[in-house]
Specification:
Blueprint: E1 5-7, E2 14-16, E3 21-26, E4 32-34, E5 39-44, H1 48-56, H2 59-64, H3 70-86
Antiparallel strand pairs: 1-2, 3-4, 3-5
């Protein structure tokens, strides 16, 4: 069976869904949360560059058609720090746009 693929809202990389963080605008209350719930979703690579660009250019908010609270970005930065502590060399950078 084929795996489901998704696209990063920041770098536009396509990969299996399991390689991304999922940010969801939950239906019907329009709250934004991580990894759970049913509603409009956006996917983001677990990379510092992707997270930085998504936050700077409001790419998550645009994809979700909702305001993304600062607490969501803080949670994502904490997750990234935890990943880098565990496996500092296994994270591959996203392809750069030229």
């Amino acid at each position: 069976m084929q795996t489901n693929h998704r696209r990063c809202v920041s770098c536009r990389r396509v990969a299996p869904k399991a390689e991304f963080w999922r940010v969801v605008r939950v239906y019907p209350d329009r709250q934004v949360c991580l990894d759970q719930g049913m509603g409009r979703s956006a996917y983001l690579c677990p990379q510092a560059d992707c997270l930085r660009q998504a936050q700077k250019k409001s790419r998550l908010g645009r994809a979700l058609k909702a305001n993304v609270p600062e607490a969501i970005y803080q949670s994502l930065w904490q997750r990234l720090a935890e990943i880098e502590e565990k496996e500092p060399t296994t994270i591959t950078p996203c392809p750069s746009k030229t």
